[in-house]
Write a structure and sequence with these properties.
The protein is mainly β. The chain has 1 helix and 10 strands.
Length: 147
């Protein structure tokens, strides 16, 4: 009877050691409205839990016209987590390996991608900041949680 307990304790310790689970992304699961947009433009990120992880949709509108759409996912692949972005300008989705996770955000990176190479999400209260960067070039996006 001691073997099953040892296996359970070992698996639990392993999970604590890596410190990552899909639960770490639960805070994303709402509609976020972007604040720093040009006049006449609105933008949103909407995230929801799916069986494989989380699915997001980024949309920008100018009046009633959709000007930008980005499909997003957070998935687990080969024991690692990835932020996946699918935009019309790329021939296929781009995978960014999540290199750090905290209770208030995460960092994902793909050094082979042209721009961005790094995507950082951080949460403070009801405000989410997303910074995309490559070297010296960086762009920041500020969102607030919609209730």
């Amino acid at each position: 009877m001691k073997k099953p307990i040892l296996i359970f304790v070992s698996l639990f310790a392993f999970q604590l050691a890596i410190g990552q689970s899909m639960k770490d992304f639960k805070w994303l699961e709402v509609t976020w409205e972007r604040q720093n947009v040009n006049p006449g433009t609105t933008a949103y990120e909407v995230w929801k839990k799916i069986d494989q992880g989380f699915e997001g949709l980024g949309v920008s509108l100018k009046g009633n016209d959709t000007t930008f759409v980005e499909k997003l996912w957070i998935v687990e692949k080969d024991s690692d987590f990835y932020y996946v972005a699918d935009v019309k300008s790329n021939p296929e989705p781009t995978y960014f390996k999540i290199t750090s996770i905290s209770k208030n955000g995460f960092v994902s990176e793909n050094p082979q991608h042209d721009f961005p190479k790094k995507i950082e999400y951080s949460l403070e209260g009801n405000k989410m900041t997303v910074v995309i960067s490559a070297g010296e070039k960086a762009m920041g996006f500020v969102f607030v949680r919609m209730e």
